[in-house]
Structure formats: C-alpha cells, structure tokens
Design a protein that fits this description.
The complex is a heterodimer of chains A (385) and B (273).
Chain A lengths: L3 E8 L18 E7 L5 E5 L6 H9 L6 E6 L2 E2 L10 E4 L11 H11 L4 H15 L14 H14 L4 E5 L7 H18 L2 E6 L2 H7 L2 E6 L2 E6 L1 H6 L4 H6 L6 E7 L5 E3 L4 E3 L6 H5 L5 E6 L5 E3 L10 E10 L3 E8 L2 E8 L9 E5 L6 E4 L11 H6 L1
Parallel strand pairs in A: 3-8, 3-9, 6-7, 7-8
Antiparallel strand pairs in A: 1-2, 1-4, 4-5, 9-10, 11-12, 11-14, 12-13, 14-20, 15-19, 16-17, 16-19, 17-18
Chain B lengths: L1 H31 L3 H5 L12 H8 L4 H32 L5 H10 L9 H11 L5 H25 L3 H9 L4 H30 L2 H6 L7 H6 L2 E2 L2 E2 L1 H30 L6
Antiparallel strand pairs in B: 1-2
Helix pairs in contact in B: 1-12, 3-12, 4-7, 4-9, 5-7, 7-9, 8-9, 9-12
Classes of the chains: A alpha+beta (385), B mainly alpha (273).
C-alpha cells in the first residue's frame, strides 16, 4: 500500500530501435503527466488507443523509462529502480502466465525468487487461491484453463506478491461480455478487501466509470481531466471528455450566444443557459458561436407546442431503436445528428417531427476554438436540477 | 467425386516422388547385403541371397568402425553442445535486448554461410597446421561449431522471439533477474526449439564430410573418412562401401526417428499458439 506520485512525467521514444528512431521528432507519447494518488486508491487510466495510458502504466511498472519527470512509489523515487525492485505487481492483458508452470507455480514464482520459506509460499498461494476461488485449479497448467480462469490466476499471481501497488493493463478485454461484467465487480471487491493502491488501464469508459474511484482521461499523451466518475460525467473539462464519458455519447450543436448572454440560438433550436453558468464567461462570448453539449438521457420528448418553449429543439426522426426500458431516437437538427434517449414506450416513429426539451442546468457549453468547457455547474446542482 | 479422384492422383504422385527419393537409400541397403560380384553386376538384381560378409569386412576396415564412429559421435556431440552454449546467450541478447544493429548482425552471421567452404580451406588449413590442430578432434569440433553457429543462433533467436514479450516482462516484475528469466522462464519455453536446433546441428556435424576429409587423417577421422576409404587405389568396393554407409547413417536415422516429434514440434513452435 502506497501513495504513487507522478511529477511532470514525459515519455519520448527515439534513439532506440530502428524505425522508432524516426518518431523521435514527433509529439511525446506521454506529456507532462502529473498525478498524486491517495493510499489505497483505485485509479483508472482511460482513453482511446494510442493515448499514452499503457505507456504511463509501463513507466510506473518500470518496463519503460520515463524520459523526464519523477515517479515516486511510497515516497521513494523509483525512476532508476528496476521493475523487479519496485514492489509492484502487474496483470497483463494477455495474462502472461508461465505456460510451463502449474497454476500453483505461477503464483509461487515471485516468492520462490525471493527464497521465501516453503510453508509461507504454501500459505500465501493457498490464501490467494481461496480468495479467487481457484484452489481446485492449482495443479493445472495454464493451457488447461478457460479465459476467465486464467484471468483469476493472473490476479492471484499479483495478490500473492502483497505488493505496494497493483497495475492492471486492460485485464478484462480478452473476456466475453458477460464474464467481463462479473470480473469487473470481483476486481472492485478485491480492491476493497485488500486496499492496495491500484492503477487500471482501459479503453472502455464503462469499465472506467464503474470501477474507478478517480479516473484519468487521456488523449494524445496528455491528461484531459482527473476526477471522480460523477464529476467527469457532470462537469467534463472539455469536449473530448464530454464525448468520451457516457453512453450514448453527448450530442454537440453549434449555437450562438445572444446579446443577453443567456439565450443560445441555433437555426431552429433555442436554449436559455440557466443560472448555473457564470455570466462573466458567457459575456465574453456575447454574439459568438459556442458548442452546446446535451447528453441523450437529458433530452425529453415534449408533446405540446414548440413555440412557447424556452429550451427546445425540433427535428424529424430518422432512426428509432427500442431497447425495452428506453428507446433511442436519432434526429437531424440544424445539420447536427442528435441522439435522444426517450421513454421505452415513446410513440415517436421514423419520419415524425418531434420536439425535445432539456433543462438549462443539464447543458454543457464549450468554446469553439479551444473546445474547453466554458462554465461548469457545481455537481450538486446538476444532480438535483 | 472429382475431389476424390484428384486426391488419389495426388497420392500416386506423392508415392512416386517418395519412391524416387527413397530408391538410392534402398539400393544402398540392398547392395550392403550383396557380395562384391553381385554388387558389380550390370543387370540390377533385387533377388539374391543376402550376406553379412561386407559388414564383417567393413567393421574391420582401417582402424575399425568403432574408432570412426566414436570420432563422429564425439565431434558432433561436443560441437553441438558448444554451439548451443554460444548460440543461446547470443540469441538471448539479440531477442530480448536488441540494438540498432541486431538485424544486421544476424544477416551478417548467416551471410558467412554464403562462402563456399573450399574458399577458406587454404587459410584454415595453414592456421590449423601451425596450431597443430590437423587430425585433431578438437580442431574438428571448432570447425563444426563455427560451421553450425550462424544457423543455430538464427534458429534459437527465432524461438526466443516466439516467447511472448509479456511473459518476459511478467518475470521481470515478479522479481526475476536476467539470468533467472533466462533459465527459469525462457529456456523451458524454448526447449522444443532448442532440441530441434541441437538435433539439426548434430545431424549436420555427423554428416559433414568436406572438413573431415581434408583436415583429418587417422586420429580424428570420422565416419565420412571411413566411407571414403573404400574408394582406394585398388578400386571401388560397392558392397563394402554400402555396408559402411549403412553403418554410418543408421545411428543418425534412428536418432532422427525418435526425435521426430520433438523436431516437428520445434519447427512449428510459434505457428501453433
């Protein structure tokens, strides 16, 4: 258990292997990464492929050197410490079990290297095996195991170490959908039980939201936002985070800020930015275009006349996707493709013209150039509005 | 129906090719059991009363079969082990700690095989002469090792490359030193590959004749020299030469037979994930 600190960490490739050398002039794989975990925190690194999340984790593991900056585990600067001396355990996407060793030996390997007494090895392996419910598999070889069982062994191998930090690199992405949901919950439970600081890399925002105590959203080697799942959802720092977190993705429309700095006008859509937005920020955008973000689940079907609505947008229904409890409706509004998550029993049909409405407090506004969030509502108001 | 017919056709062609390839070996074995007279007969004879006479003479030829067999076994075995001892660390470094020049080094090593052996015969002969390594087992072992090393490094390298990188990293994180990773994780995983590399080197060294014939005379003479000795000034002795050849190839064929499964597994390692 330990606090992990990353200060101004940069990873640049180049000067190494042929082929990669050509990339040395390119943008760093990880740029100016700063994060201080709490002791025992579950931190998820999430982002699209190539965003630097795995590289960041590999630097914490010691499998890659950080080009610049400082990495501390439990207060100790580990930048020049070999992976084997960092007291961390890692779970790989491919599980990376030793194929020639039994499950028991896979889990015991690190302890054998440390020359731990046999009784201690037996005890710790059996303890980990019983936590993960794999005691009956201890004599088997990895090839005789199913994907889910291999995953458990990989976790077991990490647990046996009793490390200061767990690193998990997309550990669930090779499992089928149902098993993934089960293992997700198990890993969270395991973390709660062991209380070890954990880094978890995934490209799946659902995994990130359900597992992380704090989530680091990355893109192109840079941190976009570090926050709790709820805060990321309610107050995304920029359009990338807004679009990345939440399914289905947030809708974006370009609209103009009125002279009153409160009204937002599209071709047909109009909104009033509620009190949740600071007047100053909208002042500076008076008469200019901004991106308006609305989550599909915050759009509601308005049955009455559209004219009287302060917050309203109308369009022709393109596709209707009934999912049972909810129905996804796609519309074309002012040249933007908008998805709305409506009630399961909605009467909207393809070809209908319908009106949607959204509470002011649910709107997200972004600068057109920087794509940064213009004004943020506090989490509470978004939750209670 | 058509597919079946073409399958039969393929089978016939396959058997035919196999027969053509196998025929010289069959003929060698048959000749070994003939008398010199029948062996020299211009009309090929398949039916004859077999005799062990040629084997009896062959076994006693020169210093005797066992002298040559021991030399062949000793030089092939030691050069193979020496080759593995050198190839494994070299391939390990190249596979797991590659530098910018690793690819070039590999190609360069293998390119030494492009030179015909006879091209370096004179310098090597002179060097060996001044070092007193002519007709010496260890001289031959060094030649065999050097001869096989490029292929061995290349093969072992490719088997090491087939070991998933994640597993090596997992061992690293589990606390294994480089040596521990090599001996406890990588070598056990690459064992089938190492076995087929060793087997190939063994066969190549056992069958080697150019250097054996030119660099040895009596003390270090191998089975290749043994066979060649039946081509003497007094003439060719087909039956005895065949008997000697049978005695020479049998051990390695038997070994190959037993190692076949291992060999196939090694050669397709990586293809089967």
């Amino acid at each position: 258990m330990a606090v992990v600190e990353l200060k101004n960490v940069v990873k640049r490739y180049g000067g190494g292997l042929t082929g990669k050398a050509a990339r040395s002039e390119e943008a760093p794989a990880v740029d100016d990464f700063n994060l201080v975990t709490e002791d025992g925190e579950f931190v998820v690194l999430v982002g699209p492929s190539g965003c630097g999340k795995s590289t960041t984790m590999r630097m914490i593991a010691g499998l890659e050197d950080n080009t610049e900056g400082e990495i501390r585990i439990g207060g100790r600067d580990v930048s020049d410490v070999a992976a084997r001396d960092r007291d961390i355990a890692m779970v790989f996407q491919s599980y990376a079990l030793y194929p020639h060793m039994s499950v028991f030996e896979n889990m015991a390997f690190s302890l054998r290297l440390k020359k731990a007494p046999k009784s201690e090895i037996d005890q710790r392996v059996n303890e980990a095996a019983s936590i993960l419910d794999i005691t009956h598999l201890l004599d088997r070889k990895p090839r005789a195991l199913s994907g889910g069982q291999r995953q458990r062994v990989a976790l077991g191998r990490a647990i046996v170490r009793q490390p200061q930090v767990f690193l998990m690199d997309e550990p669930l992405s090779n499992l089928d959908a149902k098993l993934r949901v089960d293992m997700r919950a198990e890993i969270v439970k395991l973390h709660r039980k062991l209380g070890v600081t954990t880094f978890y890399v995934t490209h799946d925002q659902t995994e990130a939201m359900t597992m992380g105590q704090r989530i680091v959203v990355m893109r192109d080697g840079r941190i976009q936002q570090i926050d709790t799942p709820n805060a990321l959802y309610a107050r995304p720092a920029n359009m990338f985070v807004a679009g990345f977190i939440g399914t289905p993705s947030m809708n974006f429309m370009k609209m103009r800020v009125g002279d009153d700095t409160r009204s937002l006008k599209g071709e047909t859509a109009r909104f009033r930015a509620g009190d949740a937005f600071t007047g100053d920020l909208l002042d500076s955008h008076r008469g200019q275009e901004v991106w308006v973000g609305i989550r599909p689940e915050h759009l509601q079907h308005h049955e009455g006349d559209a004219g009287a609505l302060e917050n309203g947008l109308s369009g022709t229904v393109d596709v209707v996707e009934p999912l049972g409890s909810v129905t996804m409706v796609q519309l074309e509004i002012d040249g933007h493709r908008i998805t709305a998550q409506l009630e399961g029993d909605t009467r909207a049909r393809s070809g209908d013209t319908i009106t949607l409405t959204c509470e002011s407090a649910r709107l997200h506004l972004f600068d057109v150039v920087s794509e940064q969030a213009l004004a943020r509502q506090p989490v509470e108001s978004a939750a209670t509005a | 129906m058509n597919a079946q017919r073409s399958n039969i056709g393929l089978a016939v062609v396959g058997w035919l090719v196999a027969l053509i390839m196998f025929f010289p070996i069959l003929w060698m074995v048959l000749t070994a059991f003939k008398t010199e007279q029948t062996a020299f007969s211009t009309t090929p004879e398949f039916l004859f009363s077999p005799t062990l006479e040629s084997f009896r003479t062959a076994l006693a030829q020169g210093a005797g079969y066992w002298h040559y067999a021991f030399n062949s076994f000793f030089t092939a075995m030691v050069s193979t082990l020496l080759g593995l001892a050198l190839a494994v660390p070299a391939a390990f470094a190249m596979a797991f700690y590659p530098s910018k020049r690793t690819d070039f080094t590999l190609v360069w090593m293998v390119s030494t095989k492009f030179i015909p052996a006879v091209g370096v015969l004179i310098p090597i002969f002179l060097i060996y002469k001044s070092l007193g390594l002519i007709d010496n087992d260890w001289g031959l072992i060094m030649l065999f090792t050097a001869m096989n090393l490029p292929i061995m490094v290349w093969m072992v390298y490719s088997y090491f490359r087939d070991v998933p990188k994640d597993i090596v990293e997992a061992a690293d994180i589990d606390g294994a030193s480089t040596m521990q990773t090599m001996f406890r994780v990588i070598l056990p995983l690459a064992l089938p590959g190492l076995a087929s590399t060793g087997l190939l080197a063994l066969i190549l060294a056992w069958n080697e004749s150019f250097w054996s014939l030119t660099m040895t005379d009596h003390n270090a003479a191998t089975l290749a020299v043994f066979i060649a000795s039946f081509k003497s000034a007094e003439g060719l002795f087909w039956a005895k030469m065949s008997a000697a050849s049978v005695l020479t190839v049998t051990p390695i064929v038997v070994l190959g037979w037993f190692a076949q499964r291992q060999m196939v597994r090694g050669l397709t390692f990586g293809a089967v994930k």
